[in-house]
Specification:
Blueprint lengths: L6 E6 L3 H10 L6 E6 L2 H11 L3 E5 H4 L4 H11 L2 E5 L22 E3 L33 E6 L3 H9 L9 E5 L6 H11 L3 E4 L10 E4 L6 E6 L3 E6 L11 H9 L7 E5 L8 H9 L3 E5 L9 H7 L5 E3 L1 H10 L12
Parallel strand pairs: 1-2, 1-3, 3-4, 4-5, 6-7, 6-12, 7-9, 8-9, 12-13, 13-14
Antiparallel strand pairs: 10-11
Length: 337
Amino acid sequence: MRNSGPWTLLVADPNSLRREKILQAYADRPDIRAVGAASIGEAYRQTEALLPKRVSLASEFAQMREFPGLDSLFKMIGAEVVIHGNALSGVMPMAVPPARARANARRTALHHAGAANPEHAPGPAPAGPAIGLQGDPGHGPDIIGIGASTGGIVAIEHVLAGFPADCPPTLIVQHIRPGFAEGVVRRLDRMVAPRVVAATDGADLRRGYVYFATEPGRHLSVIQRAGLRARLSDEPEVCGHRPAVDVLFTSLAKVTGRFRIAAALLTGMGTDGADGMALLRQGDAFTIAQDKATSIIWGMPQAAIQAGGAAAVLPLDRIAAALLRCKAPAARTESGQ
């Protein structure tokens, strides 16, 4: 998952003086690439993009409601985390961590003088039948689509944790750094009841399986060919992304006449997925945008709401149940402003 060469130290601190003091302490270390993050949203983006081996995190961030999700992401990549306090004295270079990333990060709360000094830190589910040309009986969806970007890895895990082992076939596009998606798939497959696999071109879409777009530079979509199948393509970027959520959602919109579709657009920066979700709603699919309060970055969900694509706006902990029912648990509106 990590390349050879300098390893990355992420310094996440809203206080610019503290952040720069720590970064400057490692500026001359050729074996360390020290990068800063001034907000918790930026910390998410930097973590997903750079896969830091060690994180020095301000205590202010550790007290925010978004921290548990960020902490889960640190654990997922095996980052070692130091939570530093307000006092900064004698910031010294840290010891290089072991080459092999630990399975679980160490967390040490430091609240004394010199606290910012990192030197002192301490079974698969059975496959169901393929989805036929007319869908399957029942009141739930025949197929589910999910799109996400910044903060989405943890949000996706939360949603899938609410899925049963025989869930409808689910396709996921998450904007992610090349080479990281495979590790996410392995973790999700261990953590949730359905099987989570990398999407492959031409794969039958079966109940009990979640298909994750892992190939960089290839869009994930669905096609009708003796049932529903996954399709990977090399078409141009959409909204600056490949794979793009819009491509997946647009392909699902084309089969709403024959299949019951449910889709969710989760936390993320930009507008990818908004147009595709609008097409899905026009085709009577059930569509959900994650609400602002539980989103790390409320860009993509907000854009979907503004485009008229969201049938429901829900907090993260209510999305799984709503997707499986193709129905919102209660009326909820949000302006998108």
